[in-house]
Amino acid sequence: xxxxxxxxxxLVRLWLPVGFFLVLALFPFYWMAIxxxxxxxxxxxxxxxxxxxxxxxxxxxxxxxxxTSFLTWTWNTMLVAIVSTVISLVLGVMLAYPLARMRFAGxxxxxMTVAAIYLVPQPLLFIPLADVINRLDLGNxxxxxxxxxxxxxxxxxxxxxxxxxxTVPMExxxxxxxxxxxxxxxxxxxxxxxxxxxxxxxxxxxxxLSQNEFLYALIFLTKSAVxxxxxxxxxxxxxxxxxxxxxxxxxxxxGSVPVxxxxxxxxxxxxxxxxxxxxxx
Amino acid sequence: xxLRSDPLIGAARSVRYAAPLSVWLDRxxxxxxxxxxxxxxxxxxxxxxxxCYGIVLSLQDRPVAHPGxxxxxxxxxxxxxxxxFWRVALNxxxxxxxxxxxxxxxxxxxxxxxxxxxPLKNLVRALLLLPFIVPTVLSTVAWMWILDPAFSVLNxxxxxxxxPKPGPSWLGNPILAMLSIIVINxxxxxxxxxxxxxxxxxxxxxxxxxxxTIDGASGWQRFRYVTLPLLQPIILIVTLFSVIFTFADxxxxxxxxxxxxQNATQLxxxxxxxxxxxxxxxxxxxxxxxAMLPALAxxxxxxxxxxxxx
Lengths: 281, 310
Description:
By secondary structure, chain A is an all-alpha fold. Chain A is about 70% helix and about 0% strand.
């Protein structure tokens, strides 16, 4: 805010609090990383100073990739995340465009309903949904989660895109209409190409949310071959009371990589979407 | 999607027939409802229907893989007389209130600290958001290991600082287990709070601070009478979001404690899961989940109306 502090005041006002929050935020990831690289003899020996790495090994990663279905889970997670993101973006646009641009009776009510559905948390719906999925005979198929993830992603994308669409000026569309383009042509050829940043924001959020989803995947996917990473890690790497911590941490770290990569590429879009006031906390 | 161009392709056959249809399709209301029909039908089928079906289920005795029988409000009466249910209600309340307060205070502190000029600010901001974007289940597994009964690194540090060996049993003691899930929920949600509030802080015009300083306002007074009132709408929205999703939290508790020890960290979502998926009582489970509805409905209504008004 106001500059001109001395170095000590700057330390107290800036570096101490920022440093504290950074250490707090990052320590679990540091701990994940070094645990995944420690040999078991080091992991389970209380006499060795635990905070640093003495004999790094890739054994846990090799075991994870060769002895478990981790690669299958990663593939499943990616497939589900990408397909449900695309579905949600398309359906989200179909909701958001009329709400942002058209005047028709009931628009306000629909917008309210979409916002309300977006805020309905999964635990309110998972029991009846489990029964619906069972009756449709979709248990243990990726279709089950590809169908159910968009129930949270479509309202989310619609809401985020609605906010974005309203910031796009209308002149180009009006010009296209005067030139005789139909509404659908105006939307597809003129309007949507202008909205790429909005799609990127909504897309990465939808992708992140699908990677993060756990409850539906836990209920619908009970066979190793169809599991996603979060469910696979919890259900198969934690075996009874025996914990394979090295492998678990390797899995947790590798499972976080796709999201972290996407995030690092689009961090500005992410922050912009986050601060538009439409993201769940 | 090709609905619109078909008449034009067939235009050679009947121009006069094609024109009225395209005009009709171009009416704002027709275009809007046709466009919105697929997503709305989708949501009706997979949100609206399950929601109503959940209410029906809660009025049934419905063991998994058996047809249900209507029992009226019996499930709700069972919950009412179930001491664990009230424990769950209390847990959920404590968890939501304390975690939200911690996120609010910590997030505000984070935003204020970050609202200064310093090198690598964007990188620091990106790193601070990591806990929020990494899949919750995976970071919770890391916390589980940090709090491990035998090899907890936290206890290793505490013992170094003079706490008697072997240090507290974080997930074995009812109060410490509740504290643990609150702290981890805060750890995950705080960056979201902080970065959102930071964006709000950056919209405060500097002139206001200058004017307040000239009028002799102290640092605290500037915060109290300039910053806070301007941030209030953002704080309100973020808090409502946070309350809704902390109230209905599942992942963190399921992974870390499974609701234990002795239901000390059992929340509505995990308890409903245990009853419906563990014990196979879909009807009773649905009634536990629905017990969240009154509070959730109020919160959702408040937030929806508030967001619409903005």
